[in-house]
What does this fold into?
Amino acid sequence: VRFRGETWVGLARGGAVKLPARGFEAYGAKEGLPGEEVVEMAVQGGRLWVLTSAGLAVLAGRGFAPAPVAGEPPRGTVTALATGFDGKLYAGTDQTDVGVFDGTAWKRHAFANRIVGRVIRCVAPGVGHIWFGTFGSLNDYTPETGRLDDETAEKAILFPSRIMVALAGNEQIMLTATSGGGLYRLQHSVAAAAST
It folds into this structure.
């Protein structure tokens, strides 16, 4: 990812690496990362967030600190991380929770016993919606109304593989990558979402 004009790379072993104009700077457990295997990285609210296999951390000065817990953070181990076009940080967990961090506090959305699959592997915002994928479903949640739709059940012909591995989107579209099933583009209706 790009953060403050520099490139950061997450490694499968060895933590995170910052690539300044010359050389590199390595960040690991000594610098506050909870683990050496970087799963995802995101930039939100002027902060660099790093999700490792052992937990979530945020760059603080010359090292990393544990993620803030103000508000109601999601329960469980964070398994997915994304920033959205809305400027918020989204985190999915192994206990079917999605947390949304607005830069000050977390808001927790719990989905235990409401979705297929337990571990949230990917998460992204839509207009008035939160999208998240598991090893069994692609879900579209509307916080304002509490409505939860399983897109893989409703559009089964589109999703021969129900194992979601990545999501990305903006105000108009959502791209969904599945394991063995391909890449799908779902169109948002901005007007419909705004009126929901």
In short: The first strand starts at residue 2 and ends at 3. The chain is about 5% helix and 50% strand. Confidence is low (pLDDT under 50) at residues 190-196.
